[in-house]
Write a sequence for this structure.
């Protein structure tokens, strides 16, 4: 039977700031299928990042049901969520979030340490990923020695190293020139065509054009249909 990789039903997330409740996501229902490439657009503050964090198991819904690969998230321990995240989800952020003291290769290897992969296999995997992203000759460079576009490709290589089922990208082109941005989008498109699910948060209409499905958020709710 065909099953969504992630399924949300009436999911809400309310942040509590002292005495004040901030409803960031309100009653969102959404399925993300395997190999689906979805762009999520909407004004600043509309809840895009919060929704991405929920889908990425970085946070739990305040209410509603979230099922990840057949598992009801409310029933899972923090440890189990972290394990699912580490094995199945690759994150890409606007600010790259690379470790500045490590080479590109060591950055890509980093998430594999937590999988207990032996050092030699880690290194081989990292080098394969960097090669795939066109960075074989930059493996020993530190992030500060790379352009923004190259840093984001290292971040993509790191996200891919664990062979995730899903890539979550929050404004990945926000700090890039348009040429580098297009390269990153092309790669996300390729990953989706290989069967990984991609959820891209962006307010760049050009970037969203790469995604066959575009969802829009407003005031914490989802407007279905492109
Ligand atoms: P977007 O990514 O679309 O800009 P966010 O998901 O970051 O939107 O934020 C949605 C709403 O939730 C905003 O009103 C924001 O101020 C609020 N918010 C986001 N994160 C937190 C937090 N950690 N604590 C309290 N409020 C938050
Ligand atoms: Mg955001």
């Amino acid at each position: 039977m065909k099953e969504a990789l992630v399924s949300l039903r009436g999911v809400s997330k309310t942040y509590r700031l002292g005495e004040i409740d901030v409803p960031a996501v309100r009653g969102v229902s959404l399925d993300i299928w395997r190999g689906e490439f979805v762009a999520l657009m909407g004004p600043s503050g509309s809840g895009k990042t919060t929704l991405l964090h929920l889908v990425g198991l970085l946070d739990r819904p305040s209410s509603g049901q979230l099922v990840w690969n057949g598992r009801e998230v409310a029933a899972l321990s923090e440890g189990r969520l972290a394990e699912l995240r580490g094995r199945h989800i690759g994150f890409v952020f606007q600010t790259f979030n690379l470790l500045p003291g490590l080479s590109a290769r060591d950055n890509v290897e980093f998430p594999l340490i937590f999988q207990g992969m032996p050092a030699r296999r880690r290194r081989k995997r990292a080098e394969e990923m960097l090669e795939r992203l066109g960075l074989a000759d930059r493996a020993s460079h530190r992030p500060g020695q790379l352009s923004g576009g190259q840093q984001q490709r290292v971040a993509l290589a790191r996200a891919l190293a664990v062979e995730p089922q899903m890539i979550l990208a929050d404004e990945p082109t926000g700090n890039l020139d348009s040429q580098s941005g297009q390269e990153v989008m092309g790669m996300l498109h390729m990953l989706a065509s290989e069967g990984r699910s991609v959820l891209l948060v962006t307010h760049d209409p050009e970037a969203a054009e790469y995604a066959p499905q575009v969802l829009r958020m407003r005031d914490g709710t989802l407007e279905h249909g492109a």
